[in-house]
Amino acid sequence: MKNLILTAVLLFSASPVVFGGADPAAQELLVAAEQQASLFGDDASPLQLEVDFVAQNVVPTPGHLTIKWGRKNRWWRQTTMGDFVQTEVRNGERLYTSRNAPFTPLRIPELLQLIPFSGYPQGLQAKKQKRRVENGIDTTCLQVEHEGDHGEPHEICLSPATHDMLSDEWKRPPDEQRTEKYAEYFDFRGHRYPRQLELLVNGSKMISAHVVELTAAAFDEGLLAAPKGAMERRMCAGMKHAVPVKTPDPVCPKSASRNGFMGDTTVSMTVLADGSVDDIQLIGKAAHSMDEATLQTLKSWRFKPAMCGTEPVMSDIEVVVSFRLE
Questions:
Q1: Which of 38, 87, 118, 170 is 20 to 30 Å from the Cα of 250, by its Cα?
Q2: 136 contacts: CB under 8 Å, gap ≥ 6
């Protein structure tokens, strides 16, 4: 009988880090693509973005995203998916989140990553490039590295003629191949933005999004008021993520090992300012015994908390514990 092995992956909305050894020509293409697509930079004028999407949960579920943007640290965002509703407000260093469920469904942060909400990250480093033709279209594909993907490089493919980003592909441990696709670009305020966006995992479509409106719109400062009962988090420039210091593996359930079960348990939780964890929520299920083992073990995890300067602050993370046959 083969043994089950465990892999725990922490998921952050990570800030990129600069790597050395960039290819100058590839880097020039990447920077041009970043600047062309970045609607939400420091100097961006107020706008409103409306997106319809379908996310694959147990069944395909329709949803809608609205972003009302004042400037980088002053915006309002609401996401609905089926019966779920989440409203987020960023006012300076404070992020307020109100939702009608104990946790945010897994597809929501994936959607927000798919939508280039803050522009393509600065500090990405293109290591090398290659030319190829896909579906009759000439493309330039770059090997790109940044923090937060456990050392796995991304392959970002661009149109050399228009500098539009066409796809972003990478591997996420233990065995996920993720691909974001962008198509049907249109002009807006000197930038170009995709009307169609997709996320595929191991070749299966998880999210399909369509931009229905992108317009210049005055920002209503009244939207910055914290929603009633909202969760509050501090967000600061140069914020450092929580760092795990004690992460024992779940005890592999005998029934799972005996029957050769495999699967991924995905959990959201809050790392408190003292490094302990709270509000542990199951958001992606494997076998019941695996889920229970994971939930019980994560209660004992400890972290060096997230930091704003010298101040420890609360932060929210997701953890994927993968059970695989050795």
A1: 170
A2: none
Give me the residue spans of the domains in the chain.
Answer: 11-232, 236-325
Backbone phi, psi, residue 237, to 5°: -65, 135
Strand locations in 72-222 (E): 74-81, 84-91, 94-99, 125-134, 137-145, 154-158, 165-172, 176-188, 191-201, 204-216
For the CA atoms of 270, 276, 281, 283, what is the dihedral angle to 10 degrees?
A: 70
Per residue in 1-41, pLDDT (tens digit) is 344 455 566 665 433 333 345 688 888 888 888 888 888 87
Helix, coil or strand: residue 194: strand
Q: Tokens 């999407």 — which residue? A: 53
The dotted CATH code for 11-232 is: 2.50.20.10
The CA–CA distances, whole Å, from 34 to 29, 122, 150, 275, 282 equal: 9, 8, 22, 35, 35
Q: Which CATH class is domain 236-325?
A: alpha beta
Reported as a single tens digit per residue, the pLDDT across 28-74 is: 888 888 888 888 876 679 999 999 999 998 899 999 999 999 998 99
Asked if residue 174 has a cis previous peptide bond (ω within 30° of 0), the answer is yes
